[in-house]
TrEMBL record:
This is MFS transporter. It is found in: Membrane. Residues 237-459 form the Major facilitator superfamily (MFS) profile domain. It is a multi-pass membrane protein. It holds the Pfam family MFS_1. GO terms for molecular function: transmembrane transporter activity. Keywords: Membrane, Transmembrane, Transmembrane helix, Transport. One of its GO terms (cellular component) is membrane. The lineage of its organism: Bacteria, Pseudomonadati, Bacteroidota, Flavobacteriia, Flavobacteriales. The chain crosses the membrane at residues 12-36, 48-68, 80-97, 103-121, 141-162, 182-200, 241-259, 307-325, 334-353, 359-380, 392-413, 425-445.
């Protein structure tokens, strides 16, 4: 099927739901460790508490990709039903997460939240490949990244914003502050509304051969064999991209899980107070705990706000790429390589920032890497796989995202960072080195079509 070239606003509409998805991911990535610490988690235990997220992605995304490839509704299309289901579940989870009374309940809600977000996310990746001709793939993923950048910046600043509006950062021992609860509630509303916008403003192409599609769908009990067959026969470009993804996502999982303890301690000098060190039945100790906890919560707001800068810089980076790729081809390989290296340098500089105000410059560099991670690998992949299997391929490709996160969660981060010392900030050094390695791995990509698809530009 020859796909028509879409306008900017058509691509914007089909990608707008990612604003909500990124609200969910940014709130999860920026503040879940803060919630864990507030509920009494030790720094070294935090990565393991995060294991729900990558495990969920490993299980959910290939299944959802497979099912969406085999779904068609004349009213709802192929991918949109999954957007909507995921949005409803994610919105409920976002509301409930900060109200967790105990650590294990918070970890359970993280599991539910990440599963729900994953139901929505991968079909969005497949939708870009479904709707756009090859000549617009880079452009489409870059526009998607632009929207993700907006969502990351706004959501990462939400607790700070609502705090500035007068919502309290103070809370009793073991209770998440109201500023975080309000921020997650806002995120839930934005998530649902943005997905609904895409569902009702975007149409989808039907299967090219409906008879063959129905015959394929009617075949039962092939899920496991189909998944295994696609894994064993994945293109070599996909394997090479998988290596890049491994080191890239190891780095970002390290940031999401440990940036808050690392930066509140190393940059703001206000680590989370240890509950066992205080006897709150003694008024003086209760007051001391409240003072330290409030300082930690306010520093966490600022860490989240600083992290939001990486969303802003990824948005600016995506905007530049969007203008360029709308008319000309790019060398995806070298764009991705240099972007990842710059992000790695950004992580390394966090060890040396002279004051909290300089932290935003580190995250500007991290944002360039993030903008590239969200667009270039998918553009390269979508130009080298069977378009009829785009959903399941995108789901399988997600394995290269979640496996490094699982390795990091079960001890990989703690082991490597402890080789450098016991300080929490060493985790950011590990993230930086991992991202630089990911950048250099781009040198293995040799498929010319993946590196730089030659668009048939309109005259």
């Amino acid at each position: 099927m020859k796909k028509r070239t879409l306008s900017f606003w058509e691509i914007w509409n089909m990608s707008f739901g990612f604003l909500g998805i990124q609200f969910g991911f940014a709130l999860q990535g920026g503040f879940m460790s803060r919630i864990f610490q507030t509920l009494g988690a030790d720094k070294d235990a935090i990565p393991l508490l995060w294991i729900a997220a990558p495990l969920t992605g490993l299980l959910v995304q290939p299944i959802i990709g497979y099912l969406s490839d085999r779904t068609w509704s004349t009213r709802w299309g192929r991918r949109r039903p999954y957007f909507l289901i995921g949005a409803v579940l994610s919105s409920f989870a976002l509301i409930l997460v900060p109200h967790s009374p105990t650590l294990w309940i918070a970890a359970g809600f993280l599991w539910i939240l990440d599963a729900s977000i994953n139901v929505s996310m991968e079909p969005f990746r497949a939708l870009v490949a479904d709707k756009l001709p090859d000549s617009q793939r880079s452009y489409g993923f870059v526009v998607q990244t632009l929207i993700i950048g907006i969502g990351t910046w706004v959501a990462s600043n939400l607790p700070w914003m609502v705090s500035k509006l007068g919502v309290s950062d103070a809370a009793p021992m073991g209770v998440v502050p109201m500023s975080v609860k309000v921020a997650f509630g806002i995120g839930a509303v934005v998530f649902l509304l943005s997905i609904l916008y895409t569902v009702f403003t975007t149409t989808e192409y039907p299967p090219e051969d409906m008879e063959a599609f129905e015959k394929e769908k009617a075949q039962k009990n092939r899920f496991v064999s189909d998944i295994l067959n696609n894994i064993s026969n994945m293109p070599s470009t996909m394997k090479k991209l998988g290596l890049i993804q491994f080191f890239s996502w190891f780095a970002f999982f390290t940031m999401w899980s440990l940036a808050n303890p690392a930066l509140t301690e190393h940059v703001f000098h206000t680590p989370a107070p240890i509950e066992s060190a205080y006897d709150i039945s003694i008024p003086e100790q209760a007051a001391a705990f409240d003072a330290e906890n409030t300082a930690f919560q306010k520093a966490s707001n600022l860490v989240g706000s600083s992290m939001g800068v990486y969303g802003l810089s990824s948005m600016a980076f995506a905007l530049v790429l969007a203008f360029y790729t709308s008319k000309k081809r790019i060398n995806r390989k070298y764009v991705h390589m240099f972007s990842l290296i710059l992000g790695g340098i950004g992580f390394l500089t966090m060890y040396y920032v002279p004051s909290p105000s300089f932290l935003k410059y580190s995250f500007i560099l991290v944002g360039i890497a993030w903008g590239s991670i969200l667009s270039m690998p998918y553009a390269m992949l979508s130009s080298s796989v069977d378009p009829n299997k785009m959903g399941v391929i995108m789901g399988i490709f997600n394995m290269f995202i979640v496996i490094p996160q699982i390795i990091a969660a079960i001890g990989g981060i703690n082991f490597i960072s402890n080789l450098l010392g016991e300080e929490a900030i060493n985790a950011m050094l590990v993230a930086g080195l991992s991202l630089i390695i990911a950048g250099l791995c781009n040198l293995f990509i040799t498929d010319k079509n993946a590196i730089s698809y030659q668009p048939e530009l309109e005259q």
